C-alpha cells in the first residue's frame, strides 16, 4: 500500500507543498497519537507536519490488493488490537460489531481471526454443534486452491487470549453488507481482512455477506468458498 498525503507544512508562508509518502499507515486510519509518534520518529527538525492535518487528509489510496503492504496493518494483524470497533446487542441477532469512528471506503476494519483448520474439520465442528452461529466458521480456498476453514467458535483464540475477536461477531447481510472479506498471506499465514465497501459512519453496524454458495471476489486467484 502506498499512500500519498499532500500537505503543506508551512501553509502560512505559501511555500511549496511537500509530498509525504506515508505507506506506513496504508489502508487503516491511524490515530492522532500514532501519527504524532511516527512524526517524532522521523526526527525532522523543522516544518514538522501537524498530526491533525495528516489525519484530516488521510484516505486509503491504492487497491485492496496492497492492504497488507502497510506496516501499520501488519502490526495490527500480529497483535490483534483492532481499534474503532465495539460490540453491542442487536435485537434478535445477539451481538453485533459497531463502529466507534468513521471508516473510509477501502479501509481495513479487522481480521476474521481464529484457528486454521481443513474444510473437513470445519464441517465436523459445524455438524457437532448445530446451534453454532454460522459467523463462527469461515470457509474459503487458499492460494493453493485448497478448501480451508477458519474456526472462530471459541470466544477468544489461543494466540491472543486477551484480544477481542471482532470478526466472529459481525452479522450477515447480503443486501446491506458494508464490508467484505479478502484473503491475504502474512508470514505464511492466511489472513482474511474485512475491507469497507463504502464510507461507514460512527455507530453503524458492520455486516458482510456470509454467502450461501460459492462466490468469487474481485482479484486474481482469490475465491472464498462459503458455506
Ligand atoms: Zn490469535
UniProtKB/TrEMBL annotation:
Gene3D superfamilies: SET domain
Organism: Sinocyclocheilus anshuiensis
UniProt-recorded name of the protein: SET domain-containing protein
InterPro entries attached to this UniProt entry: KMT5A (IPR051760), SET_dom (IPR001214), SET_dom_sf (IPR046341)
Transmembrane feature ranges: none
All residue ranges annotated as the SET domain in the record: 83-211
Any one of the GO CC terms: polytene chromosome
BP term (GO), one: regulation of transcription by RNA polymerase II
Any GO MF annotation of the entry: histone H4K20 methyltransferase activity
Amino acid at each position: 500500500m502506498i499512500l500519498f498525503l499532500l500537505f503543506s507544512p508551512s501553509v502560512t508562508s505559501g511555500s511549496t507543498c511537500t509530498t509525504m509518502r506515508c505507506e506506513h499507515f496504508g489502508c487503516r486510519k491511524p490515530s492522532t497519537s500514532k501519527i504524532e509518534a511516527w512524526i517524532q520518529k522521523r526526527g525532522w527538525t523543522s516544518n514538522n507536519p501537524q498530526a491533525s492535518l495528516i489525519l484530516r487528509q488521510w484516505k486509503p489510496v491504492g487497491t485492496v490488493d496492497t492492504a497488507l503492504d502497510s506496516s501499520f496493518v501488519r502490526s495490527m494483524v500480529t497483535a490483534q488490537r483492532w481499534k474503532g470497533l465495539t460490540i453491542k446487542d442487536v435485537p434478535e441477532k445477539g451481538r453485533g460489531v459497531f463502529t466507534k469512528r468513521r471508516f473510509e471506503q477501502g479501509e481495513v476494519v479487522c481480521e476474521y481471526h481464529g484457528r486454521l483448520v481443513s474444510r473437513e474439520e470445519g464441517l465436523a465442528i459445524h455438524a457437532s454443534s448445530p446451534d453454532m452461529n454460522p459467523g463462527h466458521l469461515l470457509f474459503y480456498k487458499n492460494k493453493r486452491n485448497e478448501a480451508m476453514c477458519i474456526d472462530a467458535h471459541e470466544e477468544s483464540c489461543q494466540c491472543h487470549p486477551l484480544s477481542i475477536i471482532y470478526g466472529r461477531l459481525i452479522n450477515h447481510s447480503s443486501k446491506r453488507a458494508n464490508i467484505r472479506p479478502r484473503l491475504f498471506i502474512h508470514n505464511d499465514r492466511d489472513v482474511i481482512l474485512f475491507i469497507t465497501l463504502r464510507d461507514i459512519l460512527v455507530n453503524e453496524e458492520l455486516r458482510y455477506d456470509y454467502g450461501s454458495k460459492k462466490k468469487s471476489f474481485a482479484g486474481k486467484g482469490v475465491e472464498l468458498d462459503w458455506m
